[in-house]
Design brief:
With about 350 residues, the protein is α/β, with parallel strands linked by helices. It has helices at about 35, 45-65, 85-100, 110-120, 160-170, 180-185, 210-225, 235-270, 285-295, 310, 315-325; strands spanning about 1-5, 10-20, 25-30, 75-80, 105-110, 130-135, 140-145, 150-155, 275-280, 305. The protein is globular, with a radius of gyration of 20 Å. The site of zinc ion has 5 residues, from helix 4.
């Protein structure tokens, strides 16, 4: 079965063709990184216009790279939530038009569930249930994944997403956009214990996150408004590396400990997850990967990541997950809406 997936929830216009939920025939991603880089973050109106400019070309490229014809497709899948509503609408309208014109089913996909499905596209023999952590520029959430299409929300961020915190701290430190990969690199040359930035655990047993206080703490430290008398020197690469490493450590420590906590809480309820899967752009972070190994070492829990290109936004994850919704007959119609906020359906 051939499904074409469309992803436009944020700043990547992506289209892919996936066979039977597992074989990626094409996976085209047109990134808007350069466009938004000059502003240090995604500008929604510019994102929508860029999606509009590129979507038809990206569909054409995905079809030709897959070496198929449009008429070979069995269904069209689209990420219709969560994300920037105007950006989603471009992909959604394209998907509806294709589904209507080709007279094949339309399938609506929740973007963050698809991030977790990326792990399934990257590894064979993954068994359920699993604990899933989605960490990206827009989302930080933990789920109990019961099977390919059943996700139970366990906790999420109350303010900034983890990737957003990386991007904003990189902006404070004038490192460029997107900030995650740059901080990941620079932090390797810094001392992660140099500055004790706050970790927000939000109470015993909580699986929610908050990163806005940490971001503010970095800003105040950088400006010297934390009780020290002087501002940081932007040209002092050692000092900037220490801030980056200390900030990154505060983020990954909370992410790793809460993911383990979710696992343990499920174990206590006799749900016994078979492992942990991590999806989203921040899943590429090298220190997060080390930290997860550190905290789970004693429990010997298997941890799975998507292949690097499938960590960040892509449409293969949309088309892959859609296969399982197709098999369940879970189709949408032309009234499918763009929903900006995540809803626990
Ligand atoms: O999943 P994604 O492409 O888009 C969203 O759904 O938001 O994730 C993009 C985010 C950005 O915030 C970027 O800074 C972050 O992922 N990111 C990283 C790394 N690579 C990408 N964050 C930390 N370390 C990395 N190596
Ligand atoms: Zn994403």
């Amino acid at each position: 079965m051939l499904i074409l997936g469309i992803e436009s929830t944020c700043d990547e216009t992506a289209v892919a063709v996936v066979k039977d939920g597992s074989e990626i025939l094409s996976n085209i991603v047109a990134s808007q990184e350069v466009l938004h880089g000059q502003f240090g973050g995604v500008v929604p109106e510019l994102a929508c216009r860029a999606h509009l400019d590129t979507i038809i070309d990206v569909v054409d490229r995905a079809i030709s790279a897959a070496k198929i014809k449009l008429s070979d497709l069995d269904a069209i899948a689209v990420a219709n939530t969560p994300g920037l509503v105007g950006a989603i609408l471009i992909g959604l309208t394209s998907a509806k038009s294709l589904s209507w014109a080709l007279n094949i089913p339309l399938i609506g996909i929740t973007h963050i569930y698809a991030h977790l499905y990326s792990v399934k596209l990257s590894h064979e023999n993954i068994e359920y249930p699993l604990i899933g952590l989605v960490v990206s520029g827009g989302h930080t959430s933990i789920f109990l994944i019961e099977n390919e299409t059943t996700f139970k929300f366990l906790g999420g961020t109350l303010d900034d997403a983890a990737g957003e915190a990386f991007d904003k701290v990189a902006k404070i430190l004038e490192l460029g956009y997107p900030g995650g990969p740059i901080i990941d690199k620079i932090a390797k040359t810094g001392d992660k214990k140099a500055i004790k930035f706050p970790r927000s655990y939000l109470g015993k047993g909580s699986l929610d996150f908050s990163f806005s206080g940490l971001k503010t703490a970095v800003l105040y430290y950088f400006r010297g408004q934390d009780g020290r008398s002087s501002k940081c020197d932007i040209n002092d690469s050692k000092e900037i590396a220490n801030i980056a490493a200390s900030f990154q450590e505060a983020v990954v420590e909370v992410l790793a400990k809460k993911t383990l906590l979710a696992f343990k809480q499920c174990e206590e309820k006799s749900l016994v997850p078979k492992g942990i899967v991590i999806g989203g752009g921040v899943a590429r972070n090298s220190r997060l990967r080390e930290k997860l190994i550190e905290v789970t070492k004693a429990s010997n829990i298997p941890i799975f990541y998507p292949l690097p290109d499938l960590c960040t936004d892509n449409a293969a994850m949309i088309a892959g997950l859609a296969y399982h919704k197709f098999k369940k007959g879970d189709f949408a119609d032309l009234s499918l809406e763009a929903i900006p906020n995540y809803q626990d359906f």
